[in-house]
Amino acid sequence: MTTATTRHSDRRISPVFVGILAVTAVTGWATWTGFAAQPGVAVFLFVTAAWIVSLCLHEYAHARTALHSGDITVGDKGYLTLNPLKYTHALLSIVLPVIFVIMGGIGLPGGAVFIERGRIRGRWRHSLISAAGPLTNVLFAIVCTAPFWLDALDGVPTDFRFALAFLALLQVTAALLNFLPVPGLDGYGVIEPWLSYKIKRQVEPFAPFGLLFVFALLWLPAVNSAFFDVIDAILKSLGISDLDTYCGQEFYRFWQGTNEFCSVSG
Q1: Over the stretch 11-33, which tens digit does the pLDDT of each residue have?
Q2: Fewest CB within 10 angstroms: 28, 187, 222, 258, which?
Q3: How far apart are CA 57 and CA 14, in angstroms?
Q4: How far apart are CA 229 and CA 69, in angstroms?
Q5: pLDDT at 264
Q6: What is the secondary structure of the chain as a DSSP string?
Q7: Of 59, 116, 192, 250, which is the active-site residue?
Q8: Which residues contact 43 (CB under 8 A, 6 or more apart)?
Q9: CA–CA separation, 178 and 184 (whole Å)
Q10: What pLDDT, on a 0 to 100 scale, did the predictor assign at position 129?
Q11: Is 59 a catalytic residue?
Q12: Where do the TM regions start and end (predicted)?
């Protein structure tokens, strides 16, 4: 791969990202120890902060891979600092995904780092840049589910287990949605370099509406049911039960009041 050089300041981790990490750590500790008077508030803050961390890492993976593939401009744009405020569309990359988590418990794909594709040579490099983001979500999901599939839940507080399960649900949905070969999503970016020029020109006008099309489909009961059946199957294969994700979402939506069954289970 091309060796890329950037200034040290272009790669310095942003205080904004450090602050988000701090919130994740503190609220994770509060969830683990039961320190918070209302466990749902701690779960909400922990999952939201951790979700934002994963969104930053998703975009960083795109940018870092692009840097080593030939696009040395990503440093100047601030993409290597992990600062979400540097993204081309902070609303799309951070705010909307958080709103969708609050409203529907689904990991909306973010995605707003501008890669200068003309600087990159080789179809494999283009595909790898697109795949790097959702692969980060896959890695994040593996970390979140590790206590479950390693059968290492002894000593893990139930509230924290529920929070991890819900966070894993978000990562799996984000990875799956991102890998869909739909224009505008990373999955299409993986296959686009291998398509003919004619096909790419025909598809290009639909790219801005790809995500809207996916979510319109998810409103259809049959499609929604099939999608979450796949998500549930993946999570169950990783040792996470329906109870874990259900109660995780119940605790997360603390303003609705936690289901008594989950409170007893916790």
Answers
A1: 789 999 999 999 999 999 999 99
A2: 222
A3: 13
A4: 37
A5: 61
A6: -------HHHHSPPHHHHHHHHHHHHHHHHHHHT-SSSHHHHHHHHHHHHHHHHHHHHHHHHHHHHHTTT-GGGTTTTGGGT-GGGSTTHIIIIIHHHHHHHHH------------GGG---HHHHHHHHHHHHHHHHHHHHHHHHHHHTT--TT--HHHHHHHHHHHHHHHHHHHHHTS--TTSHHHHHHGGGS-HHHHHHHGGGGGGHHHHHHHHHTSHHHHHHHHHHHHHHHHHTT--HHHHHHHHHHH-GGG---HHHHHH-
A7: 59
A8: 31, 159, 162, 163, 166, 248, 251, 252, 254
A9: 9
A10: 96
A11: yes
A12: 12-32, 41-61, 90-115, 127-150, 162-185, 206-228
Token digits of residue 262: 């989950």
The residues, ordered by sequence, that sit 6+ positions from 230 with a Cβ below 8 Å of its Cβ are 176
Chain length of the chain: 266
Beta-carbon count within 10 A of 256 CB: 10
pLDDT tens per residue across span 172-211: 999 999 999 999 899 999 999 999 999 999 998 888 888 8
- Which residues of the chain carry a pLDDT beneath 50? 1-3
Q: Provide the whole-model pTM.
A: 0.90
